[in-house]
């Protein structure tokens, strides 16, 4: 952090005119509620041991990051206590940060923290404001916390209040990334120069409602226990938790079917639609279906021909068989996507924009009129200057998704071949992930076949991967000023009202300019048992293991 100022001021110093700007009231930033207002009731009994299955390996037990099964569980306000948590609608709600005000210029937050509520670290030390300040200074230098790097000054105003200043209009953006921002104990991490490599037992010390107890390597199981009967005024209705890693989704499904585990949690990756038959119609097992916030997408390169040409992009959008793509990607529950790109479960989705539809003849006409003709009669169109046209398709292949990406690529190749466009699969990127990364970072790709995760979809959206601006370390290649500014407006919105207006504009621009095409809107499946417990809340894209689970789950009477 560039500068850190610690000064205890009188409570009257909270008047915002002291800082030369007026503040937006907290209730306009988000529909905030206190933890006590969402308290679960312990009268219905408690869950002695909740058993969760996952597919993520428990390789790292380190509170400074969100790696592996241990870190990913902390997205659920579990072992770590995030500054804010997010409800089923992906809107920020109070947690350790109990209230906040965003300045008019969106460069500052005045925030109060729950450091006066008796919260302790899992080694018994109290959570203090020093820990909060230390974390805001330390974490921006840790991998995975790039969204915190705009913090340039922190000032303590009184025992529970901070002024956090940013070097850009990033205050509201910071708030909407706080699900993955949790403090770490200063007395452990101070002086640790390489946080990612730190692997001592105290690296797992958090201050959330559950403490890490042990890891059984042979059983690939992590054990946790509640810190008490309640946390921040809310009764904890789940007393202990085990998280077991399975080596395949088939094995996890069998564990769910047999009742070996109660629910599935696997950040951003659910059971595949191809396995849906294995989790439907089973007594006591709910498939846990919800709308998927992210999507698979085709992104156009704006630094290469012919994908920098709007006419060519329009022809591609008309050529694709969305019905086939939807069933191939998401099975019978998947939907044909809309022209605005953003799936329905996301904040600001514009339902008025049309759905995409295949029209091969229209695609051919667009290409003809734009000068993409088959001048040599070999069945393939040339560029308008008469030179050969072979369009490279680079897929974002991983070990577990290779077959699906290759199937999507096959459909895209076939559909474009039907309108005379020759598409070549980037086979080197399929074989070599480093080459794939280099193609993406170079911004010289032509067609890039990738995906938007639930975390990116939540606020940044898939446009993060399409628009090139200096502030964003993504791989967008569209640097046309008008569109870059439109996305900057989304990224640097100062309230939810402003965000909704800006993201609607971005969807309309995509419908017109086609930065990228969503290939289908999927459902996702995070199965859970219904014969033991009740009180599950199925969050879209996250499933029933979320920040409400620990306070609402009860045994069935």
TrEMBL record:
GO molecular function: peptide transmembrane transporter activity
InterPro entries tied to this protein: Peptide/Ni-bd, SBP_5, SBP_5_dom
Top-rank taxon: Bacteria
One GO CC term on file: periplasmic space
Coiled coil: none
Start and end residues of each Solute-binding protein family domain: 93-466
Keywords carried by this UniProt record: Signal
Signal sequence region: 1-25
GO BP term, pick one: peptide transport
Pfam families membership: SBP_bac_5
The keyword Magnesium appears for this protein: no
The protein, known as: ABC transporter, substrate-binding protein, family 5
Organism field: Flavonifractor plautii ATCC 29863
């Amino acid at each position: 952090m560039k500068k850190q100022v610690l000064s205890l001021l009188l409570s009257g110093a909270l008047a915002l005119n002291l800082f030369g700007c007026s503040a937006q009231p907290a209730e306009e930033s988000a529909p905030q509620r206190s933890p006590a207002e969402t308290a679960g009731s312990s009268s219905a009994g408690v869950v002695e041991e909740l058993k969760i299955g996952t597919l993520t390996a428990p390789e790292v037990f380190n509170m400074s990051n969100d790696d592996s099964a241990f870190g990913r569980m902390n997205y659920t306000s579990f072992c770590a206590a995030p500054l804010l948590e997010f409800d089923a609608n992906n809107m920020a709600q109070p947690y350790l940060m109990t209230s906040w005000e965003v300045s008019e210029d969106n460069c500052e937050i005045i925030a109060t923290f729950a450091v006066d509520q008796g919260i302790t670290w899992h080694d018994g030390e109290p959570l203090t404001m020093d820990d909060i300040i230390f974390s805001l200074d330390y974490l921006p230098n840790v991998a995975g916390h790039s969204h915190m790097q705009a913090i340039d000054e922190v000032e303590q105003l009184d025992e529970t209040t901070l002024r956090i200043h940013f070097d850009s209009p990033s205050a509201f953006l910071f708030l909407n990334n706080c699900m993955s921002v949790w403090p770490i104990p200063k007395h452990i991490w101070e002086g640790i120069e390489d946080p990612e490599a730190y692997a001592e037992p105290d690296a797992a010390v958090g201050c959330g409602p559950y403490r890490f107890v042990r890891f059984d390597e042979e059983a690939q199981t992590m054990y946790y226990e509640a810190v008490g009967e309640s946390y921040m005024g809310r009764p904890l209705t789940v007393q202990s938790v085990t998280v077991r890693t399975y080596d395949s989704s088939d094995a996890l499904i069998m564990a769910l079917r047999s009742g070996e585990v109660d629910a599935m949690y696997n950040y951003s990756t659910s059971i595949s639609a191809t396995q849906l038959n294995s989790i439907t119609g089973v007594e006591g097992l709910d498939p846990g279906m919800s709308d998927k916030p992210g999507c698979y997408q085709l992104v156009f390169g704006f630094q290469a021909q012919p994908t920098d040409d709007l006419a060519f992009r329009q022809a591609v959008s008309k050529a694709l068989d969305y019905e086939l793509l939807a069933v191939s990607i998401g099975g019978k529950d998947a939907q044909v996507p809309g022209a605005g790109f953003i799936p329905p479960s996301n904040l600001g989705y514009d339902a008025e924009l049309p759905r995409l539809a295949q029209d091969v003849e229209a695609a051919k006409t667009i290409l003809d009129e734009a000068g993409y003709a088959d001048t040599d009669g070999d069945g393939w169109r040339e560029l308008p200057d008469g030179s050969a046209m072979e369009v490279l398709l680079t897929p974002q292949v991983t070990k577990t998704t290779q077959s699906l990406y290759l199937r999507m690529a096959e459909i895209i190749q076939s559909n474009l071949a039907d309108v005379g466009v020759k598409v070549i699969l980037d086979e080197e990127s399929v074989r070599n992930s480093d080459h794939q990364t280099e193609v993406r970072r170079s911004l010289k790709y032509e067609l890039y076949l990738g995906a938007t995760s639930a975390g990116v979809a939540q606020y940044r959206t898939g446009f993060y991967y399409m628009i090139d601006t200096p502030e964003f370390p993504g791989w967008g290649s569209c640097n046309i000023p008008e569109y870059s500014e439109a996305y900057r407006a989304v990224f640097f919105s100062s309230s939810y009202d402003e965000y909704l207006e800006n993201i609607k504009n971005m969807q309309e621009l995509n419908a017109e300019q086609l930065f990228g095409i969503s290939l289908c809107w999927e459902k996702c499946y995070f199965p859970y048992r219904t014969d033991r417990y009740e009180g599950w809340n199925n969050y879209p894209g996250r499933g029933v293991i979320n920040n409400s689970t620990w306070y609402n789950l009860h045994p069935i009477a």
